[in-house]
Every structure is written in structure tokens, then in C-alpha cells.
TrEMBL record, chain B:
This is Succinyl-CoA:3-ketoacid-coenzyme A transferase 1. It comes from the Bacteria. The keyword Nucleus does not apply. Keywords: Transferase. The lineage of its organism: Bacteria, Pseudomonadati, Pseudomonadota, Gammaproteobacteria, Salinisphaerales.
Length: 223, 213
């Protein structure tokens, strides 16, 4: 029997250890697993590497992990946004490491990890500071940069609906990085607004097949 | 010299967006271009977070919390629009499927290099987002920027001094003074606004311009 449903946010993030790399889905305020992030904040693990497109803003989501000094490294494409005070403060203090890369490279590195590739050559970043130290190659007259897969121990993602096999459907643009992160992590935990019965999701609407998902937890309305 | 307002700059650029284009508008001044595309042209706007067919700002109270654009503002989806994940969204860029990207710029070089993601201030955290992918991937890159900095320094130069976003990627620069096309011979003025003379514009440009053909 396959039943990936977990009863609480607290149990859903069990097993995350200090020093782990954790992917967190979302873009801006869209498609973010706010309740899982809150559970992670209260969980006790620190020295985390957070892999997420943005580095949080104001006093919610990823920003609270930074504020509570649980994060030692951020891997992202765009750490600076309106209200990203905690990231900026820690960056200025030298209290946080930043690994920055172009957004498409960021997504594709996770897809490569999830798809079992050893890397890929991208034209993005060729000839720029972000390609320094990386292997490059000219293919058919175009310059490319070798990018390696990006993996993590955990992915915390957010979907609209999920079933007990882990199939997920998203709401509008809330999809963003969630599907590639689901593929790339050893353990993927999905926060969903609704858990539905098997067969209720239109198979054509399943954007993340359950094989990529290990745990599904319904929002508790806590955040 | 006659300096156009940001709205007028966006309006000028919008005239060059053809019917049937797939277009990505960068954060800041470029997003204003959508307001000025002439009636009757069907243009599909792409947003890097996974939308084709970005529509106008929603009525207050009808916002979908997940439906935002790259600038993280609430938007709507037009009829026929669709959603996809970020990896597919950037495949659309790198794969050359997007017709036009309109980007802001700090500096553009005579040979079409673009610098628009970082300055030389090391204390300020860098952020690149989708700028590099867009500059490399879109079939045509239009840069919409003021001709000079607030302090009057030239932004169109022999070579960029800020970190590059992409090399040999810019097709045209639309400034508040003129429209400049990057050609194999060098940057050529193709339009001067108002009474601006070629000499006026050359005087605030950090590289040799070619006059209108």
C-alpha cells in the first residue's frame, strides 16, 4: 500500500538535520510552502543551506529562518528583493554565504539532478563573472558553460492539491520551481491546500507525478 | 536637448513590437511597454516564473495570490494563456523561442554587450535573476534605458565597466534622446528625438556613433 500522507507539519519535516541542504519552492510570494518553513524554523536544525530562488523578505517565510540564524548558506538567483532585510543584514555582516547563479541555470541544475544527468552546457553566463572558474566549450560556434547538477537532502514544496500517492496539481503560477525541486531532492515534502481522493485529480492536470514526492501534508492554517 | 519621459520612451519602443510576437518585458521601465503597443496587434507576454499570456492588473479584491509577474506584482491571465514550470520557462528563452526581450540597462557597449545586473559596489548583494538567460536566449534584445546616468555619465560606451550580463546580445537601445541600433560597423543612430542633433547625442555617448544612414 502506498500512502504518503503525513498528519502534521511537524512530522512532515522529520529527519532534517543540521548542515542539510534544503530546497524551498516558490517565487516571490507565489507557491511557497509557508507552513513547512515555519515547522522547519521550530524544528531545531541549523547551519542549513537554503536553495530557493529568493532569500525571503520582510518577517515571513525564508526570512524567518535567516533571522533565527538557522541558515549558513543561500543558493539562489535573486536574493535581493523589496523587504529582504534579513538577507541584506547578514550579507553585510559576512554571516551568510551566497552562491548566485542565473535563474534558468538554477532551475536546469535541479532538473539535471532529478533527471540523472552529470551536468549540461548552457550559453547563459558565458563570458561573464558568473562563469569564472567553470569549464567552457565552444559547440558549433557558440560558447557554453558547464553547469553541474544541484541536489539536496530535502525539498519543501507547495502545491494546490495532492493525493495519497503524491500526485500534485498547482494553482496558476504557483508551480514555478516546485516540480524541479521535487525531482532533485532525496526526500520531497509537499504542503498542499487540499488532499483529495485517488482519481480525483485529472491525470492531465498532474504537474508533478507522485513518484517524485515522498510526503504529502495538508495545510493546518497555522501561518 | 529634448529628453523623453519614461512613458514616452516605452511608447516609442512599443511601436517596434510586431503583431504576433512573444515578448518578455523586464522589471522596471520595460513593463510599461505593454501599455503602449498599438491596438490591433496580438502580443503574448511571457513571465519568467511560468506564464505565457500575462494580462493586466486585476481588479482589487480579485487577486490570485499565486498569480504574479517577475516583478512580484499581481497580474491576470488572458484567454489562451497558460502556466508551466521554471525549467520550461527558461527553455523557452535559451531555446530561442521568445521573439523579443525588453531589458533595462546600466551600460551597453559598442559591440552589443549588456551590463544590467551588478555594479562595482561589493557591499551590495548581487542579484541576477533571469537577466542573463533572457539576454542570451531571446531572438532580439531591446534595451530601454536613459542615455546617461543621473550624474550625467555616459551609459553607451566602448566597453562596459560593470560586470556583463551577456556578450554581443543587444540589437537596439531606446534612450530618452535617441534610438540606436548596434550594427556590425558599430552603434548607429537611427532616430533622434525632437530637435536633438547627432552632435548633441554624440557628446553624451562614450563611444563613436554612426550617423543616420
Amino acid at each position: 500500500m502506498i500512502d504518503k500522507r503525513i498528519a502534521s507539519m511537524r512530522e512532515a519535516i522529520a529527519g532534517i538535520k543540521s548542515g542539510d541542504a534544503v530546497m524551498i519552492g516558490g517565487f516571490g510570494s507565489s507557491g511557497i510552502p509557508f507552513e513547512l518553513i515555519e515547522a522547519l524554523r521550530l524544528h531545531g536544525a541549523d547551519n542549513l543551506t537554503v536553495i530557493s530562488n529568493n532569500a525571503g523578505s520582510h518577517e515571513i517565510g525564508i526570512a524567518t529562518l535567516l533571522r533565527d540564524r538557522l541558515v549558513s548558506k543561500v543558493v539562489c538567483s535573486y536574493p535581493r528583493s523589496q523587504g529582504s532585510i534579513w538577507f541584506e543584514r547578514m550579507f553585510e555582516e559576512g554571516a551568510i554565504e551566497l552562491e548566485l547563479m542565473p535563474q534558468g541555470t538554477f532551475a536546469e541544475r535541479m532538473r539535471a539532478a532529478g533527471g540523472g544527468l552529470g551536468g549540461f552546457f548552457t550559453p547563459t553566463g558565458y563570458g561573464t563573472k558568473l562563469a569564472e572558474g567553470k569549464e567552457t566549450r565552444e559547440i558549433d560556434g557558440v560558447g557554453y558553460v558547464l553547469e553541474r547538477p544541484l541536489k539536496a537532502e530535502f525539498a519543501l514544496i507547495k502545491a494546490h492539491k495532492g493525493d495519497k500517492w503524491g500526485n500534485l496539481a498547482y494553482n496558476t503560477a504557483g508551480r514555478n520551481f516546485n516540480p524541479v525541486m521535487a525531482m532533485a531532492a532525496e526526500t520531497t515534502v509537499a504542503e498542499v491546500e487540499h488532499i483529495v481522493e485517488l482519481g480525483e485529480l485529472d491525470p492531465e492536470s498532474v504537474a508533478t507525478p507522485g513518484i517524485f514526492v515522498d510526503r504529502v501534508v495538508a495545510q493546518e492554517g497555522l501561518v | 536637448m529634448e529628453r523623453r519621459t519614461p512613458e514616452q520612451m516605452a511608447e516609442r519602443l512599443a511601436q517596434d513590437i510586431p503583431d504576433g510576437s512573444y515578448v518578455n518585458l523586464g522589471i522596471g521601465m520595460p513593463v510599461m511597454v505593454a501599455n503602449f503597443v498599438p491596438e490591433g496587434r496580438e502580443v503574448i507576454y511571457h513571465s519568467e516564473n511560468g506564464i505565457l499570456g500575462v494580462g493586466p492588473t486585476p481588479e482589487p479584491g480579485t487577486e490570485d495570490p499565486d498569480l504574479i509577474n517577475a516583478a512580484k506584482q499581481h497580474v491576470t491571465l488572458i484567454k489562451g494563456g497558460c502556466y508551466f514550470d521554471t525549467a520550461d520557462s527558461f527553455a523557452m528563452m535559451r531555446g530561442g523561442h521568445l521573439d523579443i526581450a525588453v531589458l533595462g540597462g546600466f551600460q551597453v557597449s559598442a559591440d552589443g554587450n549588456l551590463a544590467n545586473w551588478a555594479t562595482d559596489n561589493e557591499k551590495y548583494p548581487p542579484a541576477v535573476g533571469g537577466a542573463m538567460d533572457l539576454s542570451v536566449g531571446a531572438k532580439t534584445v531591446y534595451v530601454l534605458m536613459r542615455h546617461t546616468t543621473k550624474d550625467g555619465a555616459a551609459k553607451i560606451l566602448d566597453a562596459c565597466t560593470y560586470p556583463l550580463t551577456g556578450t554581443h546580445v543587444v540589437s537596439r537601445v531606446y534612450t530618452d534622446l535617441a534610438v540606436i541600433e548596434i550594427t556590425p560597423e558599430g552603434p548607429r543612430v537611427i532616430e533622434l528625438f525632437g530637435d536633438n542633433s547627432f552632435e548633441d547625442v554624440q557628446a553624451v555617448t562614450g563611444t563613436r556613433l554612426l550617423p543616420q544612414a
